[in-house]
Amino acid sequence: MVREVLNQVYTLSHDTPSGQPEYGSNDSGKGKKVIIEYSAPNIAKSFHVGHLRSTIIGAFLANLYKACGWEVISMNYLGDWGTQVRFFIVFRFREFTEIPLCSLV
């Protein structure tokens, strides 16, 4: 039974009139465009498996949309700008107010 299923998957994905893999694909997104934005592992921090989560999910969604006929624009960016933006906001807030920094937490 396993051999039959694998043969069917191979036939549907490689022996097609278009020469392109067609197994699991459709034209539901034909003529539509989607942007998938996801981050790469943060190079400023020590690497661990949690850094791959966003990258894996983003790549999966891009492949899924492509299989359904969508035009996919994948935007993958490096780094974590949250800390820098937070420091900038706190700096600006302190510059225009007399509230001590410890009261913001």
Can you put this structure into words, describing what you see?
It is elongated, with a radius of gyration of 23 Å. The protein has 2 domains: 27 residues, no CATH class; 74 residues, no CATH class. It contains 3 helices and 2 strands. It starts with a helix and ends in a 9-residue tail after the last helix. 3% of the residues are buried. By secondary structure, the protein is of the alpha+beta class. Strands 1-2 form a two-stranded parallel ribbon.
Mean pLDDT: 77
Main β-sheet description: 2 strands, parallel
Contiguous uncertain segments of 5+ residues: none
Strand order of the largest sheet: 1-2
Relative helix content: 40-55%
Share of residues in strands: 5-15%
* Element string (H = helix, E = strand): HEHEH
Explain the layout of strands and helices.
Elements: H1 2-14, E1 33-39, H2 52-67, E2 71-77, H3 82-96
Parallel strand pairs: 1-2
Please supply descriptive tags for the structure shown above.
42% helix, 2 strands, 105 residues, two-stranded parallel ribbon, 2 domains
Summarize the structure.
With 105 residues, the protein is α+β, with helices and mostly antiparallel strands. Helices cover 42% and strands 13% of the residues.
